[in-house]
Amino acid sequence: MKFEEYFDRVKGCYLGKNIGGTLGAPFECYRGVYNIEGFMQDVSCPIPNDDVDLQLVWLAAAEREGRAIDSLVLADYWNTYVSAVISEYGTGKNNFNAGILPPLSGHMRNVNRDSNGAWIRTEIWACLCAGNPALAATYAYYDACVDHSGEGVYSAVFTAAVESAAFFEKNVNALLEIGLSYLPEVCGVRTAVNLMRDCYAKGDDWKTARIKLFQAVPSSFGEMNGLWKGTEEVPACAQCPAQNADPEIPPAVHGYDAPWSIGAIILGWLYGEGDFGKSICLATNCGEDTDCTAGTLGAILGIVNGAKALPPKWVNGCSDKIVTWTLRTDALLNAPKSVDALCKRIVRQTPVFLQDRCKITESGTYEIFPVETLCKKEMLFPEHIQEDFSLVFACGHNTVRKHFRPYTLLVGFDEDLAYLTENETKRIRITLLNQRFVPQFVSVRLLGVPADWEVAGGAERRVGLEHWHGGYNDNSFTFEITPHALTCGKYDLVLELCEDGKFEKNYLAFSLLNGEGGLKEKG
């Protein structure tokens, strides 16, 4: 794919995102079934949208940190620039500030970990990793686990993979198969996607499919503002009438929203049958998290078709200016002010992320080459350098991962995660992956352990690492810590790592909690 086409698809992505997000904005958080065919509110001025806001923070991270970004880097940028403290956004920040690192920060104490805040911000990873869904899915995982877990992460991984593949694949069913290949065999997102495919194939109308979706993966999102009765901005009318309770819709577990929302995107995509306007209107007509479902579907269709093929009615009817509302802005964030400016800055970073799959041409631009298979088979980085997507994803919500130049550090917590119980052994698994093409020894010390705690075998270990040619490049051990005389609510510990013969030391600080932090864990 030549640069001109790639840029057109990136711009189509964010124009579609902006159009769909604007279309669905008045109906967000309401439950209803509508029959809208266009914008229902005044769109003469741009509206703020957190779905795009959050990606401006990731843009800043990509520009300054390059492809070496991981969950800890993203969490730091999130903590610095995201001012929103609602729902999972606030819980993730609160956990991180307490020393609970991702992916634990997205899981612990987080009743909204299965909700929608992560899959709505995946477009930047898809654009930076166009044609390489494994790479896009991995960055989406690093992103999502800052403030989500479970279905909140699965939905982001699925969406990023679909959007990345859409730069080179247009067939909807092929794209869905690609996205599903990155998911566990059993999860709510997979259930929702396959149900919508079955409904469409059997000839169910879209309203029947919507009810079946509620019954299979109930959503709580529309319960926030309740039944749609109209607002001052958009009064109830024939296209969006006041709603009555539907007895066929079951109650939902609060925060379990991502599977239903992904299903609504697929509903709009399939029943829209290639028509951009019809598709995003259908996603909105289903209700619930309407700005997100219509916005993400608009982004997918914008990638597939490109900006030049988007209907002028929709493009001209919506401002391309970006107005933020969830960010603390400053000169270092340097947030773009328009969709065009955002896209131009994203494509400058694409060669950094795609590396040898992005070739500079004689004319001074570049071309992008997709991976050989878009399903989950391609390695993220060469296997002797990094883990592939499968290994990253398989660690779940209990393994902190930090990339240092000489090695990657994985810190695996036991089933109690960051919680401590007096006189009960706490197990923390340390794994190092060698990033150098030479063997090395690394000293690992656990600092900050109270004097009356026991650490079996001592608080310092020496780890030998081979390089990949020796057949493996990893080594692991477990710190077994038994805490006594717990008098504090939080204990701050530090891992110190140092290669033999090097003066450089690396550190990872984390906290352990005495108690449950005031909130019971849900299942």
Describe the model:
Helix 2 (50-65) packs across helix 16 (339-354), helix 11 runs antiparallel to helix 12 (258-272) and helix 12 crosses helix 14 (290-305). The chain is globular. It has 523 residues and is α+β, with helices and mostly antiparallel strands. The protein starts with a helix and ends in a 9-residue tail after the last strand. Residues 378-387 have low confidence and may be disordered. The strands form four sheets. It has a five-stranded antiparallel sheet with strand order 5-6-8-12-10, with no helix packed on it. A five-stranded mixed sheet has the order 7-14-13-9-11, with no helix packed on it. The protein has helices at 3-24, 50-65, 71-81, 87-97, 104-107, 123-128, 133-144, 151-165, 172-180, 188-202, 206-216, 258-272, 276-285, 290-305, 312-316, 339-354, 389-394; strands at 30-31, 226-227, 358-360, 366-368, 399-403, 407-413, 419-420, 426-434, 440-447, 454-455, 460-465, 474-482, 490-499, 505-514.
